[in-house]
Amino acid sequence: MTSLGDTKAPEGPRVRSAVARRAAGRSLEAPFYTDREFFGLDIAAIFTRHWIFAAVDAEVPEPGDYTTVDIGPYPVIVLRDEEENLRAFHNVCRHRGARLLDAGRGSAGNLVCGYHKWTYGTDGALRYAPSQPASFDPSCFGLKSVHVRSVGGLVFVCLADRPPADFDDVAARIEPYLLPHDLRHAKVAARSDIVEDGNWKLVMENNRECYHCDGHPELLRTFFPTYGYTEENLPPQLRPAHERYLRADAETRETYERLGLPYALIEELDNRATGFRIQRDALDLAGESFTADGKAACRPLLGGLPTPRLGHLALHMQPNSWFHVVADHAITFSVLPLAPDKTVLRTTWLVHPEATEGVDYDLDTLTKIWTATNEQDAHLVARAQRGISSPAYEPGPYAPTEYQVEAFCNWYITRLREALDDD
User: Is the peptide bond before 300 cis (omega within 30 degrees of 0)?
Assistant: First the structure.
């Protein structure tokens, strides 16, 4: 494996003092979102040390299939080898460092560098290097491997020598929720990359609260706007939606129990290295999918599930991903940092492997809700980035409904402190 576990975090006194004085319950100070030194700290302390959601198994279903992802400055290849095992490598040729694969995804029997034609097998071994001397040993120049794990069809990579040890426990707890949907054998219906004009943490924070959900009229057709609220802090205008939620929740719980589907909330967002939250929950209207009327957008259903009225399975993983899995399709979201003020949001829609576009589903109907929501969120994130960049900005207090934003920031600051203490 690569030797990135000892990647050092920036040690400037400005960085250390900002981390040390972070006030609980308030947003982070401006440099965390705007400064390149702090961005370097994020890469070193977060993205090179933790499990990062990178792809789905459905993107590499057959031997030779590959997809690529950039984790900060680290380009990575995820592929299926000749033995049908999942593998990941740094997307860097061992000759003179050229990027090995330019395409975002594809299929190849061998991985051929477009510069000098060094050729690697799907196991990462160097198979051909032209014009080398007799003393050249190809076994010394295989691709640098990266830790990779599939959990219920979701693919995570870790650049560190020693990944967080709690991932096995997390995987064992979330996989029973995912397996009934059989995402491992699903099909990619669509994938979208948008560049948001904001820091990656603003993208994650924005996703962790519904305080702003009145800005998502399409999503709120089915997603209850009461997410994050309690009986004690529920605004009067949300009471009718809450009453509908209680009725839908009671019905879906009966269905989950009858079908033996796990649904209970597990929320460990900031008390462990691999923070996560998972829950199966009700949807509004028909309660089947993220569509204008709440009805399923695709037939057949994932995993051969017996009914479409299963609400949605929501999973959140620190530091860079969230997922919504309904009976008829799944949507994955991956947040990938580009610069202090630039972030890629990658969204992938999955359907049953035998579903046919134009027959079993209409692609626009399938993707419409979350495409609109992503665009709206991108506007809000850019608005936040512009305001935070002002000298007048100072950290403001979180509302009770924003408790998951606080949990994300607490997890993040804890990880930074650990990385700085290691140096």
Answer: yes
Give all strands (DSSP E) within 152-231, no chain letters.
154-158, 187-196
Residue closest to 376 by CA, chosen among 204, 192, 206: 206
- Quote the CA–CA distance of 8 and 281 in Å, as a whole number: 41
Cis peptide before 319 (omega within 30 of 0): yes
Instruction: Go through the domains of the chain in sequence order and give each one's CATH number.
Output: 13-149 (2.102.10.10), 167-408 (3.90.380.10)
DSSP 358: T
Question: In angstroms, rounded to a whole number, what is the distance separating the alpha carbons of residues 76 and 68?
Answer: 6
- Predicted TM-score (pTM) of this structure: 0.96
Return the DSSP state at 264: -
Mean pLDDT of 239-263: 98
Q: Which residues contact 319 (CB under 8 A, 6 or more apart)?
A: 46, 47, 50, 52, 204, 275, 335, 411, 412, 415
d(CA 147, CA 3) in angstroms, rounded, equals: 11
| Torsion (CA) 215, 216, 222, 223 in degrees, nearest 10 | -70
Rounded Cα–Cα distance for residues 284 and 410 (Å): 32
CA angle 288, 289, 292 (to 5 degrees): 110
pLDDT (tens digit per residue) in 159-205: 999 999 999 999 999 999 999 999 999 999 999 999 999 999 999 99
The percent of residues in the chain predicted with pLDDT above 90, rounded, is: 96
Cα–Cα distance for residue pair 303/354, rounded to 1 Å: 11
Tokens of 98: 């050229």
Tokens of 378: 């991108």
Q: Which two tokens stand for residue 113?
A: 């560098």
Enter the tokens of residue 245. 């939620």
pLDDT tens-place string over residues 270-315: 999 999 999 999 999 999 999 999 999 999 999 999 999 999 999 9
Q: Residue 179 to residues 86, 278, 304, 313, 327: CA-CA distances in angstroms?
A: 18, 14, 11, 11, 12
Q: What are the tokens at 197?
A: 């004009």
